[in-house]
């Protein structure tokens, strides 16, 4: 029997850097990172946010994926996917799972953690604790181009596409987006417009990140994506299948990331430390 779980390095800004949360579990008398098993049908991303809240009382927004830990529990194989998670609100109250929560600088937290795999996860976080997040979305399904009689930029989403948008509306808010950008065609804008309406922000048009704009000036598109990422908060950018792999190849030239996957309705969660790509997590079916 396989057990799937998810957890996080819960962090908050502190003078001189960040501090992270370490939880004491009375059942095991250990100090660990917040984590727990997935509910039936739950994704690792949603489980990480839920478990952080249940164990620590803090609502958090996700950042980069920090890796997966695997070990045996009795006769079962257990995997735990960990994420960076910034605390945005809430406060700790002692509960059945956790009776004490302490906030510590990263070196002190590493010294307190009971398990080596938790220390490894924390070390992965420490590589870029203040990395910014950009969510690069490929537009949802819009049917077959050959079956559309009008201008391609007016091709609408299909029924399948609208279902993918609904899934994106459950997934993208887990990362705390604050800005929405899109290639100015119907299928791209309609993929992210519901999110923009929920956030109360405009959909900023990005013609240079569309297929025609990218072919005309690829370096300008790369520069524009970095500029968007460097802005305040977390940005969502909706683009096209003819652009996303090349953008990721340019961003990941030094990191070894290859962005050849970009199915319709998928998301690349990009983490950047300045102009350096430090994480690229592909979510094919949010």
UniProtKB/TrEMBL annotation:
Cofactor(s) the protein requires to work: Mg(2+)
Domain Nudix hydrolase stretches? 1-127
* PROSITE patterns the record matches: NUDIX, NUDIX_BOX
GO MF annotations for this entry?
hydrolase activity
Q: Does the keyword Hydrolase apply?
A: yes
Key words of the record:
Hydrolase, Magnesium
Q: Which domain of life does the protein's organism represent?
A: Bacteria
Q: Which family does it belong to?
A: Belongs to the Nudix hydrolase family.
Would you tell me the protein name for this molecule? NUDIX hydrolase
Which organism is this entry from?
A: Actinokineospora fastidiosa
Lineage of this protein's species?
Bacteria, Bacillati, Actinomycetota, Actinomycetes, Pseudonocardiales
